[in-house]
Design brief:
Distance between the termini: 104 Å
Shape: globular
Number of domains: 3
CATH class of the largest domain: Alpha Beta
Number of helices: 15
Largest sheet: 5 strands, parallel
Order of helices and strands: HHEHEHHEHEEEHHEHHHHEEHHH
Low-confidence stretches: 9-13
Strand content: 5-15%
Mean pLDDT: 83
Number of strands: 9
Radius of gyration: 26 Å
Length: about 375
C-alpha cells in the first residue's frame, strides 16, 4: 500500500497526486491552475487592502473627528437590507467626497454588497438613462439584448452618484422616482422594478443656488438631503495637510518601490502655507510627482514645486475649476466679482453667449438674466 501523501505545510489541504507515468499536459495544467489560484489570491488581497485604505479617513483636526463620527453614525443606521439613509455629500472638487462615500459603505451593513460609482458628468446625456436605469431588448436600435442598469446592479449595496448637481433637468424626474420610491423603469419596459440600494450623492456645485435658479428640482434636492455632510476644504484642516502629505509620500514610495524619505521642515512649512485649491487630490498628485522626479533626502521645499501663495484680494482658479479668493482687509464686492466673471467669460467666448454659459457652467437663460442685471448687453 502506497503511503499517504504528506500534507503541504503552507496550505490546509493535501497536495495533488500525479500518477506515473507522467502526463506532461496534465502536469502543465495543474501548475497553471495552481499559479492562477495564487495570482487570484494576491489580487483579492490587494483589492481588500486598497478598499480598507480608501475607507480610512485620515486627519486629526476637529473637523475630521466630526466627519468620522457622522460616518460611524450612518454606518450603524444602515441595515444589510431595507433601512439605508440617503446621503448628500457637499464639498469642493478634490476634497474627498468619493473617499467619504466609500467609508460610509465600508462601515455600514451593506459592506458585503456592491459599491457602484457613477460620475454623472462623465456619461453622455443620451446614454445616462440607459446606463443608470437599463433597457429592454428592442428598446432602441442597438438594444439587441435586455440589460440591467447601474441601479439594479447596485441592489443590496450602494450607488454613489457623483456630481449629481450637474444632471440634466430632463433626467431629474427619473432620479426623483429612484430616490423616493427605490424603483427604476428600464427603457422600453412597462413595469417598474424595485431596487434595494443605499443612495449616496455628491456635488461640488452650490446646489441650493441651483434650486433657486430653477436649474435643479427642489423636490429632488429635498429627497437627497436626508443626511447632509459638508466636507471641509483642505485649507481649513490645519495640520491635517502635513499629516496627509506624509501619508501620500509613504504610499507613493511604496507603490513605485522608491526609498522612503521624510519631509524637511521647510517642505512641511511650504505645505502648510499653500492654498491647495485642488484640495486632497492636488496634494496627493504633488507627493506622487515628488517620488517620481526627485531624489533629495529629506524632501525639500523646492522639490514640491508649489507656486507662490495667492496675493490678498486676488481671485484664482485651479485647473479643476475650484475658485479660491483671498480677501483683503477691506473685503470684496460680490456683485463686482460676479460682474468681472461675466465680462471675462464673454471676452473669452468672443461674445458668444452659449460658449460663455458653458465656461461658467450655467444655463444660457441664467447667463442672459445676469447680463441684463449688470447691463452688459447694452
Amino acid at each position: 500500500m502506497a503511503p499517504s501523501p504528506t500534507p503541504c505545510r503552507r496550505c490546509s489541504t493535501a497536495p495533488a497526486i500525479v500518477l506515473k507515468p507522467f502526463d506532461l499536459d496534465e502536469i502543465r495544467m495543474r501548475v497553471e491552475r495552481a499559479v492562477g489560484a495564487a495570482r487570484a489570491q494576491r489580487e483579492i488581497a490587494y483589492y481588500r487592502e486598497r478598499e480598507a485604505a480608501e475607507a480610512t479617513i485620515i486627519g486629526a483636526s476637529p473637523a475630521m473627528d466630526r466627519l468620522r463620527e457622522l460616518v460611524a453614525r450612518l454606518g450603524r443606521a444602515t441595515a444589510p437590507r431595507g433601512a439605508a439613509p440617503t446621503v448628500l455629500l457637499l464639498g469642493e472638487t478634490g476634497s474627498g467626497k468619493g473617499h467619504v462615500a466609500r467609508a460610509i459603505h465600508a462601515t455600514g451593513g451593506r459592506r458585503e454588497g456592491p459599491f457602484i460609482e457613477v460620475n454623472c458628468t462623465a456619461l453622455p446625456e443620451q446614454l445616462v438613462e440607459a446606463e443608470l436605469f437599463g433597457h429592454e431588448r428592442g428598446a432602441f436600435t442597438d438594444a439587441k439584448t435586455a440589460r440591467a442598469g447601474l441601479f439594479e446592479t447596485a441592489d443590496g449595496g450602494t450607488i454613489f452618484l457623483d456630481e449629481i448637481g450637474h444632471v440634466a433637468p430632463s433626467l431629474q424626474a427619473k432620479f426623483l422616482k429612484a430616490v423616493e420610491e427605490k424603483t427604476v423603469r428600464r427603457i422600453g419596459a412597462t413595469d417598474a422594478r424595485a431596487v434595494d440600494v443605499q443612495i449616496i450623492a455628491a456635488t461640488s456645485r452650490d446646489i441650493e443656488a441651483a434650486v433657486q435658479l430653477g436649474e435643479f428640482r427642489d423636490d429632488l434636492y429635498q429627497r437627497l438631503s436626508v443626511a447632509v455632510i459638508r466636507i471641509p476644504p483642505l485649507r481649513e484642516r490645519g495640520e491635517d495637510t502635513v499629516l496627509l502629505a506624509r501619508t501620500f509620500l509613504e504610499q507613493a514610495s511604496r507603490r513605485y518601490a522608491a526609498p522612503q524619505r521624510p519631509l524637511s521642515p521647510a517642505a512641511e512649512e511650504a505645505i502648510r502655507r499653500y492654498a491647495w485649491r485642488g484640495n486632497v487630490r492636488e496634494l496627493q498628485n504633488v507627493m506622487e510627482r515628488v517620488v517620481l522626479f526627485t531624489d533629495s533626502d529629506p524632501v525639500t521645499a523646492d522639490d514640491l514645486a508649489l507656486s507662490s501663495p495667492v496675493a490678498p484680494g486676488t481671485v484664482g482658479a485651479a485647473p479643476g475649476g475650484v475658485v479660491r479668493i483671498d480677501f483683503p482687509d477691506g473685503g470684496l464686492s460680490l456683485e463686482a466679482v460676479e460682474r468681472a466673471l461675466l465680462v471675462a467669460a464673454l471676452e473669452r467666448a468672443g461674445g458668444n453667449q452659449t460658449k460663455a454659459a458653458r465656461l461658467l457652467a450655467v444655463s444660457r437663460d441664467t447667463l442672459r438674466y445676469r447680463i441684463e442685471k449688470y447691463g452688459l448687453g447694452e
